[in-house]
Amino acid sequence: MSLKTALLGALRHVQRINPLQASSIHTAASLRKAEDRKEMRASLPAKDEGTIGERVVDIDTLINRKAHFFPDANTATQLFNGMPFNELPICNIRVSPNNTIISVTDYKGVLRLIRSCGIEGFKNTRKGTNIAAQATAVSISSKAIELGWKTVRVKVRGLGPGRMSAIKGLQMGGLNIVSITDNTPVSFNPPRPRKQRSL
């Protein structure tokens, strides 16, 4: 006697005893599904839960503020911490794929401080990482603060992984960055590329 026939026989026996019990056996699974669904819905987060506490930004006021970000005729004489913009010290960041060199000059261009990832103690391929650039920027910013410079202009030149992290490191070191200029040289008639590799 198979299991199927045994179950069918038991079901018929139950139907003979009480037809209400038999119907409850068939509907119990669907009732359980409905209860599970209710529990699942109750445990789900509310729909607007992700937007609670989010900051609302008025776009019109941002656009009006952006007008002050770009230089104009009065920028050279504008005061930052009591110094005119054209007399602020300049922090030059020279970025390459293999190294990041950061130097601080006065407004005339006389070199006062210079640090690189290699001087900081990073060797070989680690010199080209963004962590090395950030560590170098933090150390040179502390030395610039010792000289009495708190507010600087930043000029970035070149492409590499240390571009943004060097600027971030200057801020982490305590320098107040007033402007960021990109001085990356762009050639409009670059040298002829290598011929295509034949496979």
Topology:
Blueprint: H1 3-17, H2 19-43, H3 59-66, E1 79-80, E2 83-84, E3 90-95, E4 100-105, E5 111-116, H4 117-120, H5 130-146, E6 151-157, H6 163-172, E7 176-182
Parallel strand pairs: 3-6, 6-7
Antiparallel strand pairs: 1-2, 3-4, 4-5
Helix pairs in contact: 1-2, 5-6
List keywords for this structure.
199 residues; 40% helix; 7 strands
How much of the sequence is in beta strands? 15-25%
List SSEs in N-to-C order: HHHEEEEEHHEHE
> Number of helical segments?
6
Task: Write down the overall geometry.
Answer: elongated
Distance between the termini: 71 Å
Helix content: 25-40%
**Extended strand count:** 7
Low-confidence stretches: none
> What profile does the largest beta sheet have?
5 strands, mixed
Instruction: Specify the structural class.
Output: alpha/beta
The protein's oligomeric status is: single chain
Description:
The protein has helices at residues 3-17, 19-43, 59-66, 117-120, 130-146, 163-172, and strands spanning 79-80, 83-84, 90-95, 100-105, 111-116, 151-157, 176-182. The chain is of the alpha/beta class and 199 residues long. The chain has a five-stranded mixed beta sheet with strand order 5-4-3-6-7. A two-stranded antiparallel ribbon has the order 1-2. The model has no long low-confidence stretch (mean pLDDT 81).
